[in-house]
Amino acid sequence: MPPQNKTTKYEHIIPQLVAAEQNSKIKGLLLVLNTVGGDVEAGLAIAEMVASMNKPTVTLVLGGGHSIGVPVAVAGDYAFIAETATMTIHPIRLNGLVIGVPQTFEYMEKMQERVIQFVTGHSNIKTEVFKELMFDKGNLTRDIGTNVVGQDAVDHGLINEVGGVGPAIEKLRELISRQGELLQ
């Protein structure tokens, strides 16, 4: 499919996360992200599910973890980003017909606050720094927000470490082993 068409549906991922949590043969979860973002409610639902799993979880951003992909990227117990992968941090936006009443803007503000609280609560980034990146007016062409690349995401405290599939799997095995020791 062309890049503007989403081929992964949230309604497919959520039941798979539930099944993984319930399956005793699955000891941990590696979530690999390459997303332009999408539906805020669905993205937060996935992020909240990953964050609440009892099994060790590691996330890995390859290519991009943009927009609502940011909360999903920080939802795991440990987060990696590839050296050249990017994450776009920007305010909540709507497309299509918007009813211009105060309630709509209040709803958007509350939704945006949910994203900010989730990201800052599940990473080491400071709220002020995250908001500064979110509302930067000079960083993205014709947009507000910021692109962070690989090490920048680590330096800001958003992601734990730069690395790829190998280090992510190694970390997941370490977390699974540690959890096994705690259960004994």
Strand residue percentage: 15-25%
Share of residues in helices: 40-55%
- Give the CATH level 1 class: Alpha Beta
- Unreliably modeled segments: none
Instruction: Identify the quaternary structure here.
Output: single chain
The major sheet is characterized as:
4 strands, parallel
Q: Tell me, rounded to a whole number, the average pLDDT.
A: 86
| Count of individual beta strands | 6
Distance between the termini: 48 Å
CATH architecture level-2 label: Alpha-Beta Complex
Which structural category fits the helices and strands? alpha/beta
* CATH topology tier name: 2-enoyl-CoA Hydratase, Chain A, domain 1
Provide the gyration radius in Å: 17 Å
Number of domains: 1
| Overall body shape | globular
| Strand and helix order | HEHEHEEHHEHEH
Physical arrangement of strands within the biggest beta sheet: 1-2-3-6
What would you give as the CATH superfamily? 2-enoyl-CoA Hydratase, Chain A, domain 1
Number of helical elements: 7
Describe this protein with a few key phrases:
6 strands, single chain, four-stranded parallel β-sheet, globular, 2-enoyl-CoA Hydratase, Chain A, domain 1, alpha/beta, 184 residues
Q: Can you put this structure into words, describing what you see?
A:
The chain is an alpha/beta fold and 184 residues long. It has a single domain (27-183), classed as Alpha-Beta Complex (2-enoyl-CoA Hydratase, Chain A, domain 1). It has helices at residues 10-22, 40-51, 69-74, 102-121, 127-135, 151-155, 165-183; strands spanning 29-35, 57-65, 78-81, 86-89, 146-149, 161-162. The chain is globular. The model has no long low-confidence stretch (mean pLDDT 86).
